[in-house]
Amino acid sequence: MGSSQGSTLSANVAGIVDNSSLHMHREESYLDGMPVYVKELIAGGCAGALSKTAVAPLERVKILWQTRTAGYHNLGVCQSLNKLLKNEGFLGLYKGNGASVIRIIPYAALHFMTYERYKCFLLNTCPMLGSGPVVDLLAGSAAGGTSVLCTYPLDLARTKLAYQVTEQRGSIEEGMKGVHSQPSSNGIKGVLRSAYKDGGVRGLYRGVGPTLTGILPYAGLKFYMFEELKMHIPEEHRKSILMRLSCGALAGLFGQTVTYPLDVVKRQMQVNSLQNSAHADTEYKNTFGVLRTIVRNQGWRQLFAGVSINYIRIVPSAAISFTTYDMMKGWLGVPPQQRSR
After folding, report:
1. Own/partner pairs for 298-301, CB < 8 Å, 24+ apart?
2. By C-alpha distance, which of 159, 165, 195, 158 is closest to 179?
3. Which CATH class is domain 36-176+186-332?
4. 229-238 b/e with 16+ CB inside 10 Å = b?
5. 156 and 193 in contact (C-beta within 8 Å)?
6. pLDDT at 180 > cutoff 50
7. Which domain of life, per UniProt (predicted)?
8. 3-state class percentages of the chain: helix first, strand second, coil last, to nearest 5
9. Which DSSP letter does residue 168 get?
10. What is the pLDDT of residues 38-78, one digit of tens each?
11. How far, in Å, are 63, 91, 116, 147, 203 from residue 38 at the CA level?
12. Contact 275/267 with Cβ under 8 angstroms?
């Protein structure tokens, strides 16, 4: 009797183990059959969405500072966050984040995937470059430019939505100053329709010049620093989450410091049509014209407006992004790029 029960139990356990193994085998087979570039797109999209949402409130405050929004550009980080909470509630901290996430998923997916493809291309066609971080610098720059061009209108929509603030009814003085010269746009679709109506396709790409000028060195330096730092870590510690977070944070910090003024230029170009500004449109048509205008009318310090909050934001953002991407690549079975023989 006992022997019969024991054999039945063993058979049941064996059946459960076999089913579990079969399920895992099917999942592995499904992942193995997936093209490498699709895996890279999935890993990049997840990394971008997670990192962007984690720092969305800080990103909104940074945009309000960069665009000198009345009632915010003189405040500190905590004061700005408290004012947004008071005037717009908790969801106000994430205003524009929907557009940001819709943009960042294809942006980050394309960014990481094209980086891997460009890196593979350079390794196989330009052997004189070697296989070190210089390849990462070039591949990262090209990937940054590609992803920006493909997703820029969504970045424009995110900035315009984040720029629109709601004042309390009692603040008549600030209302008189007029934060907007146009009524608020309703959602991503409304912003894009309005931008297209005002300037056609060029209107959807307003501010893309400084974005490209900034993203090429930033994206390249970011990947360069990340891979360079990883090379100096003992191999047994390279898979440590803490080490990945540290390398990603330092890489993002370095890249942002070098290219930050161009980010300010981009934001002011994007919201220029919403401001009651005395500047003529001609002054906002090219990157260097806007740089001169900002320095002349607002002072050179404005080129670094919001840089402190950007440091607070970029450390967790870059750290989460690189770490998530590296871990997702491992889980999905993406092999490291090597020169083909």
Report:
1. 298/68
2. 165
3. mainly alpha
4. bbeeeeeeee
5. no
6. no
7. Eukaryota
8. 80, 0, 20
9. -
10. 888 888 888 888 888 888 888 888 878 877 777 776 787 88
11. 33, 33, 12, 16, 32
12. no
- Two tokens, residue 44: 């990049």
Q: Which two tokens stand for residue 3?
A: 């022997």
> What's the N-to-C CA distance of the chain in angstroms?
64
Assessment of whether the complete model's pTM goes beyond 0.85: no
How far is residue 190 CA from its own chain's centroid?
A: 22
Give backbone dihedrals phi and psi of 167, rounded to 5 degrees, phi first.
-95, 155
Separation of alpha carbons 318 and 59, rounded Å:
13
For 181-234, the pLDDT digits (tens) are 444 556 778 888 888 888 888 888 887 887 787 777 778 887 888 878 878 888
DSSP one-letter string for 89-155: -GGGGGTTHHHHHHHHHHHHHHHHHHHHHHHHHHHHH-GGG-SSHHHHHHHHHHHHHHHHHHHHHHH
Contact (Cβ atoms closer than 8 angstroms) between residue 202 and residue 285: no
- Amino acid type, 76: G
